[in-house]
């Protein structure tokens, strides 16, 4: 019988292999689920948005790609159409969206719905981050953050609801942030907007369930867009290794988050948390022992201030 020290690595590799094959199967099934569905991406030109666009386009979805830059939208359009078989995919439709201009959103909603006459899946993945002490953030910045992170997604969600309700089906996905559940220092505007969006979509979920509409929220830690330090020369033969590495890296990679969004659409999950153990522990402390968490956060602020003074 093999010693445990030798057997353990073998079991780990086998388990990782089984998990990888399982995820590949889920990806195949998810592609089948989104075929022919009208899917709206509110920020298709971001890192996560472009990954989402590739996944859903390969799956045969009828994409409506939104973004603030027409040049970037056209570039993404060209990339998608070049990399995919036109006999199995649909050419995406492009819509300019600027959530920082609330007055323009009524026309945007009309344009989005008019593309196909209805929307099956709305994915709200637009976001803006602001970092700084409360006293240094102006009210104008606060309002801009709320416009993009809260009022924008809410406006689009309300805009597609009538057609979803009349068709008795549809799905709205909010790609939010763990800051929608856990507020940390120097993120006041960002955390407030994410908390507001989380609350809105939680309410919406309960209100539209009777119409067959599902509402999903995905809370993730920061996006890690850095490239791997040492890419393999032949990725086709190292996909398993690359997959394991991406899971162990710090932060959430755009490709991992995009894949989770696709699975969420497929399974109609109501809530997803993409996080390492430490933020999860902070969430538990916030619910069970809030004074402990508040003390830890305050100590962190004092330590950072001390470090800046010393420097």
Description:
With 311 residues, the protein is α/β, with parallel strands linked by helices. 57% of the residues lie in helices and 12% in strands. It has 10 helices and 7 strands. Helix 1 (4-34) packs across helix 8 (254-267) and helix 5 (139-167) packs parallel to helix 6. The longest helix has 31 residues, at 4-34. The protein is globular, with a radius of gyration of 21 Å. The chain starts with a helix and ends with a helix.
Low-pLDDT runs: 228-233, 306-311
Percentage of residues in DSSP E strands:
5-15%
Q: Terminal Cα separation, in Å?
A: 59 Å
- The H-and-E topology, N to C, reads as HEHEHEHEHEHEHHEHH
How does the SSE layout of this entry go?
Layout: H1 4-34, E1 38-41, H2 47-58, E2 62-67, H3 70-83, E3 93-96, H4 105-116, E4 121-124, H5 139-167, E5 170-175, H6 188-208, E6 213-220, H7 239-248, H8 254-267, E7 271-274, H9 277-288, H10 290-310
Parallel strand pairs: 1-2, 1-4, 2-3, 4-5, 5-6, 6-7
Helix pairs in contact: 1-8, 2-8, 4-5, 5-6, 9-10
Brief write-up:
This protein has 311 residues and is an alpha/beta fold. It is built from 10 helices and 7 strands.
Keywords:
disordered C terminus, 311 residues, 7 strands, alpha/beta, globular, single chain
């Amino acid at each position: 019988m093999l010693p445990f020290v030798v057997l353990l690595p073998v079991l780990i590799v086998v388990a990782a292999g089984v998990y990888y094959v399982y995820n590949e199967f889920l990806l195949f099934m998810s592609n089948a689920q989104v075929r022919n569905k009208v899917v709206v991406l509110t920020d298709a030109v971001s890192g996560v948005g472009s990954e989402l666009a590739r996944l859903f386009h390969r799956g045969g979805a009828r994409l409506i790609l939104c973004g603030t830059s027409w040049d970037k939208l056209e570039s993404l359009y060209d990339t998608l159409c070049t990399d995919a078989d036109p006999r199995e995919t649909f050419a995406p439709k492009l819509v300019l969206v600027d959530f920082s201009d609330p007055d323009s959103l009524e026309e945007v909603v009309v344009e989005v719905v008019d593309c196909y006459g209805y929307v099956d899946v709305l994915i709200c993945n637009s976001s803006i981050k602001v970092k700084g002490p409360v006293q240094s953030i102006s009210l104008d910045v606060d309002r801009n953050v709320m416009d993009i992170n809260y009022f924008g997604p809410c406006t689009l969600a309300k805009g597609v609801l009538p057609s979803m309700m009349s068709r008795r089906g549809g799905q709205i996905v909010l790609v939010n942030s763990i800051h929608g559940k856990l507020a940390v220092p120097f993120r006041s505007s960002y955390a407030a907007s994410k908390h507001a969006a989380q609350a809105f979509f939680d309410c919406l979920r309960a209100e539209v369930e009777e119409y067959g509409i599902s509402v999903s929220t995905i809370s993730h830690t920061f996006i890690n867009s850095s490239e791997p330090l040492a890419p393999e020369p032949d990725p086709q033969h190292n996909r398993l290794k690359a997959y394991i590495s991406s899971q162990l890296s710090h932060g959430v990679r755009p490709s991992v988050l995009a894949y989770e969004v696709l699975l969420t659409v497929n399974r109609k999950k109501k809530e997803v948390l993409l996080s390492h153990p430490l933020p999860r522990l902070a969430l538990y402390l916030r619910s069970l022992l809030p004074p402990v968490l508040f003390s830890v956060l305050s100590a962190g602020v004092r330590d950072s201030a001390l470090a800046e003074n010393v420097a």
